[in-house]
Queue: 2 jobs
Job 1
Amino acid sequence: MAPITPHTLGVHKILKHIPLNAIFDLPAKRRLAKAVNIADLRLCAKARAHKMVFDYLDSGADDEISLRRGKDAYSELEMHYHILSGIKPPLDLRSKVFGCDVDLPFFACPTAGNRMFHWEGETAAAKAAEHHGTLYGLSSLATTGITEISKVHSGPKVFQLYVWKDRELVKEVLAKAKEGGFNALALTVDFTWYGNRERDIRNEFTIPPKYTIKQMVEAIKKPAWTYDFLSHEPYNYACINSDVPADSLASFVANQIMPEFDWKDAEWLLGEWNGPAAVKGVCRPDDAIRAVETGFSTMWVSNHGARQLETSPATIDVLPSIREAVGPDVEIIMDGGVQRGTDIAKALALGADAVGVGKPYLYGLAAGGAPGVIKALDILRVELDRAMGLLGTGTVDDLKKRGPGLIKRRGASARDYPDRYAFERGYGGGVI
């Protein structure tokens, strides 16, 4: 028998007609308006979201060493700029990804369960991608359906898929993605076991939250998030089966994830999709070469946001070796640790064709829905434009062509993190 909750009692059907969220969200809107960088958006998200939801978004695996290294690695890369380059604004940030034209060389990565951060969920990120004319990535564990996303985003889209056991389920999901106008597929291969996220364990994280005294106290502290949660429909995994409630994530993953999925299974999947496809989770050159031989068109260098294998390498550190292994003609996407537009510039210079961002846009989503995601991408766009201008590269193609000579590594320094509060701010910025 299902537990009695406000949703089972139908409270959300009443509350949705009482627009108190406009009042509860006033402080969040003020904070969002003052944010000037991604670290600020992180603080905005922390101030609005339930503690266990924010920590789920903000955390990494085990001791979070890879999470910290993923950010630190960019600070060890210096930008050796050219002078008197003869370029002037506006710069050309246009690029291609999965063979499609985009206005920005970076995009919002596919991430699961966006409605836990804000009631707009994946729709907010899709609207932001449409606004900026860039790629949108949808997770197969999304809480918004493929049809809804297609209504708000007309540009190129990539559908992310996990390694499920049930091939009929896989075929069904792929058919939905094709019908919904998704241009490419991304197979996530670094999620064969569920990572050890200890903040979640300490917070007694569940989707949706259990109605314990601890969670209710935390909910009272965050009225804007709580009213959103109570005044909207409960979450479900809309891309798989709208009848599957999101609170069954752990059991669904345990039943459906296929740890023994191998290269032969990948070949079968590529045959079913028959289109542009990325293998997401590459960190070794030999695996990248094998993936190209298997038929993947795109290498997606990723360590799952440092949420899976602790002490996995920073993606920006392995990116050059992946580029060297596959050569100049194979498309490479990279995500991981990106907090600044300068980080994106470094990734493009060292071999990436496109850069995915996860936490930055989710901070924006948790901070304020679609306006927050739009602002997150806009912050990164402005920072990337400035970095390219100061480097002396007027186009993304120019940055990629001249990149290896512009970026040089040096040892880490305590001066990279100038004060003891840097960790609390997410390493840099954060003055509100």
Note: The longest strand covers residues 277-282.
Job 2
Amino acid sequence: AGTNAATLIPGEGIGLEATEAMVEVFDHAEVPVEWDRVEVAPEEEALPEAVMKSFARTGVAVKGPFFTKPRSRKVSLNILLRTQLDLYANVVHTFNMDGVNTRHKDVDLIVVRENTEGEYSGLEHEAVPGVVESLKVISEARSMRIARYGFEYAVRNNRKKVTAVHKANIMKQSDGLFLKCCRKVAEDYPFLDFEAMIVDNTCMQLASRPQQFDVMIMPNLYGNIVTNVATGLVGGPGLFPGMNVGSGGAIFEQGARHAAYSIAGKGVANPTGTILGGVMMLRHLKLERHAKMIEEAVAGLYASGGIRTPDVGGTATTTEFVKAIVARLDD
């Protein structure tokens, strides 16, 4: 088989360390992927032409996080990537990992988040001095598209239940439309359990009984919040992968997009989420043998109770953690 090309966007914060760790593990596993590395400076105002060209050629990428300061006036590079490349579905899988001690057991849920509109439309303005309006945009076409994607994902992955998360009791038209689209799509999948749940109740239920959830579909902002809650329940943002997928391709990354500047450059970042994001990419490229080999090495390391980074109760550096995975690949 030939070599696959993939774009690598290291990002900022811990992105550099996490993506380098992933590349090292992939090299050691002799994964047939050739990386086209594209640096994006944090101060960039628009998506660099190099990123667009590379992604148009490869159709797949692994990226580190980008952090947008709350007071910055520029559009987030994360948002630019998703909207300009029309990567409309953000999918994050969180589950109990053997060897990682957490309060909740038997958690295994998928968050499917609409990635291109909603509260992230970027349409804000000062109507009169001291009064700001922010437009939340929900469209039937994009709501139907994400609902269809979520249900299809459930079928392909032998899932039993879909929960649509909303706030239609207050935002009757916008979230009302989103919920209506989910209900309409649900009619085509009578063999799947379907429920609708208000977003605040969803967060409470996640904190108290997360085992009830399977596949969850939601608009953009709720997806961001629920993803962070879901990863926090089972070990934190460093452990779990996510993907952003659309008709033009897919970008893989850590599921909860934390640049984690507080630990960047200290050599203690947990690269697990990024490595498993890379594994998701391998499956997307139909490189199942390599995907399974790396996934089993990572899972085996955690299950053994051995080396791990400080965020999950260990003392290892990123480098030591990567060496331990590589050693398992050699076994």
Note: The longest strand covers residues 118-128.
